[in-house]
Specification:
It is a single chain. The protein has helices at about 25-35, 55-70, 85-95, 115-130, 140, 150-155, 170-180, 195-200, 215-225, 230-245, 255-260, 280-290, and strands spanning about 5-10, 40-45, 75-80, 100-105, 135, 160-165, 185-190, 205-210. The chain has about 300 residues and is α/β, with parallel strands linked by helices. Helix 10 (about 230-245) runs antiparallel to helix 12 (about 280-290). It is globular and about 50 Å long. The chain has an eight-stranded parallel beta barrel, surrounded by six helices.
Length: about 300
């Protein structure tokens, strides 16, 4: 399968009101902000969306709002992962996936499967849908690493496993995947700080958290890097560094939600166990945002 997504993707937040209910109007406004900011594709219901704290009904409601708001203007990737293979397959069957361009499936978390267990898990996911599947490797959160060997084995054995979001931080592993991947297999950075180095190694794009608040700057940086304009991309990378340095200090997506709330775009609320950032960090982020030069 020749998969086409590249460039700047955003792992979209889920806005809530003070009672923890989803703010669908704010979610629609976030979609417009991303489209106007030049984002190439949206990833719904990933970690940044606080998906572990969303019920199945909540997830379905978020998905329907995003599909109707986007209306096909840019591609939509749906986060669809879990640590119970059987339950995940049931979700794939029961969700209305019309209008979804691909699935992003995180490695099973907490139960720490072997590489063969990971392979069999993704084999069943691939068999359960005709949609393109992007693997998501984030050992810091899940407690297990999807090795280059297993990634490449899956890419070779299943035509609808079309890419990987790599957030291992292991450049040896990432380089091995890039060097040996099948034709058309995409590699995306899952780490905002490493986005530019990823692209310089030959990656196809990024799935970003920071782009929720700075879509124009982030997408311009990635587009310049992909076009080979590394000096211009580096200027934007350095502009984003203070944001990246501070925005994750007290957890994600609390930092990016604080910036968006300070601008009046959303309310700052998260669902427990996540909480708002400290007043001290809010002040730091507000100062960075106020000093920003150029489009955000």
């Amino acid at each position: 399968m020749n998969f086409y997504l590249q460039g700047s993707g955003v792992a979209l937040i889920t806005p809530f009101d003070g009672q923890g209910a989803i703010e669908h109007q704010e979610l629609q406004a976030m979609v417009e902000f991303m489209v106007d900011g030049g984002i190439d594709f949206i990833v719904a219901l990933g970690t940044t969306a606080e998906t572990p704290a969303l019920s199945k009904r909540d997830r379905e409601a978020v998905l329907e709002t995003l599909k109707s708001s986007l209306n096909g203007r840019i591609p939509l990737v749906l986060g669809m992962g879990g640590n119970d293979t059987h339950e995940l397959l049931e979700h794939i069957k029961s969700f209305n996936l019309g209008g979804v361009d691909a699935l992003l499936s995180v490695t099973p978390y907490y139960n720490r499967p072997s590489q063969e267990g990971l392979y069999r898990h993704y084999a069943q996911v691939a068999d359960a849908t005709d949609l393109p599947i992007i693997l998501y490797n984030v050992p810091f959160r899940t407690g297990c690493n999807l090795t280059a060997e297993t990634t490449l084995r899956l890419a070779s054995d299943f035509s609808n496993i079309v890419g990987t979001k790599e957030a291992s931080g292991d450049f040896g592993q990432i380089t091995e995947i890039l060097r040996n991947r099948p034709a058309g297999f995409k590699v995306y950075s899952g780490d905002d700080l490493l986005s530019l180095p990823f692209i310089s190694l030959g990656a196809d794009g990024v799935i970003s958290v920071v782009a929720n608040a700075f879509p124009k700057t982030f997408s311009e940086m990635i587009n310049k890097a992909l076009a080979g304009n590394h000096e211009e991309a580096l200027v934007l990378h350095e502009q984003l560094l203070p944001v990246v340095k501070h925005i994750f200090q007290e957890g994600s997506p609390a930092g990016v939600k604080a910036i968006l709330s300070q601008r009046g775009m959303i309310q700052p609320h998260l669902r427990l166990p996540l909480i708002e950032i400290s007043e001290k960090l809010k002040t730091v982020l507000a100062e960075i945002d106020e000093r920003w030069v150029g489009p955000k």
